[in-house]
Amino acid sequence: MRWLLLAALPFLAAGCTAVHDPFLETGAIRPDAPPISTEVSPEFAAAYLPSISGRIESVRQTVRGEFFEQAIVYSNATVSAGENVLTVRIGTPSEGVTFLRAPTRRAILAEMRQALPGVAMTIDAAPGQNMHGIYGYATGPLGKSGSCLYAWQFAKRVSPVRETAMGRIGAGNYSAQVRLRFCHPTMPQERIASLMAGMRLKPVTRDTFDMLSYAGGSGYGRSQPVLTRAEPVATVEDDVEVRRPKRRVVEEKRAEEPAIIRNAVRVPLPGEATQEKVKVAVVEKPVEEAAVSARAKRALVPLPGE
User: What gap in Å lies between CA 52 and CA 75, rounded to an integer?
Assistant: First the structure.
């Protein structure tokens, strides 16, 4: 009977390990959290506008797999709400129909109403063209002399053209969806449309995704002036409390002044001893002569009994 129990122990141990334990299976759980948007330096922007649009203020991006999106923000000098932003979405056709064809008119009208509420936008019947192909755009008046622009473009290929088959495989087949929302307080409608004509997309390869992933968090902020405030100190003068700022007292080391000794005995230098003797002799001689003359005068006076 005992040998039967010993023989059954391995089967009992195997049965214990077959129990479902979620803590042992955490490594097989797939993360469902969305990718985090980070800010990168403007040098990593995937596209840029002509110089008349101003400088890039910030670049916000999201990278996942073979898809990334960037919001390239320019300064907005108008009083209208919203950002002057160039939005670029890049991916492969496997990401969906977004990277297979241009947007529909209904989709563009919905985007414009959300991006430019309250601005009467008019879609131009004649599309524009830049180095990446044709694009559509709409303009609208802003104030007395300003205007707004909303432009859209589908670039079928933004990967560099390679001569060999292996080069084309390494470059990838990436497309781009581009949107531009831009308002200016003084630029007229016929001129603001030229911003999209000068828009340029940078070539995208598989190495671009690795570079942008490592560039996350490299954005910069403008330096702000540091405000300093003196700390008040309470003092009482004539029963009235007066608050004065502290002052730092800096003690400066004064230069050492030479010590002055008064009534010091002067030691004559060589050659000065004879001069002193002459001076003494000259001074003492009239004294002796005065004493002799005084005795002579006393001799001329007759004494009693003379």
Answer: 12
The residues facing 105 across adjacent strands are none
- Exposed/middle/buried for residue 176 (C-beta within 10 Å: 0-12, 13-18, 19+): buried
Amino acid at 199: M
Pair 80, 71: CB distance under 8 Å: no
Give 159-210 pLDDT, tens digit per residue.
887 644 555 555 568 999 999 999 999 999 989 999 999 999 999 998 998 8
Quick check: helix, strand or coil at residue 175? Answer: strand
89 and 102 Cβ atoms separated by less than 8 Å? no
CA neighbor of 190 nearest in space, from 128, 237, 243, 238: 128
Write the single-letter amino acid at 99. F
For the chain, the first-to-last Cα distance in angstroms comes to: 181
The Cα 135–Cα 193 span in angstroms is 11
Find out whether 93 and 105 touch, Cβ atoms under 8 Å.
no
Q: What is the Cβ-side half-sphere exposure of residue 84, based on CA atoms within 13 angstroms? A: 24
Looking at residue 186, what DSSP letter applies?
A: S
CA dist 218 → 34, 45, 229, 284 (Å)? 21, 12, 32, 101
| Rounded distance between C-alpha atoms, residue 126 and residue 143, angstroms | 25
% helix / strand / coil in the chain, to the nearest 5? Answer: 30, 25, 40
Nearest to 140 by CA among 124, 153, 154: 124
Predicted confidence (pLDDT) per residue in 74-84, tens digit: 999 898 888 99
Rounded to two decimals, what is the model's pTM?
0.60
91-108 confidence digits (pLDDT tens): 988 888 888 899 999 999
Helices (H) and strands (E) in the chain, counts: 7, 13
Q: Per this entry, what is the length of the chain?
A: 306
Alpha-carbon gap, residue 112 to 154, rounded angstroms: 17
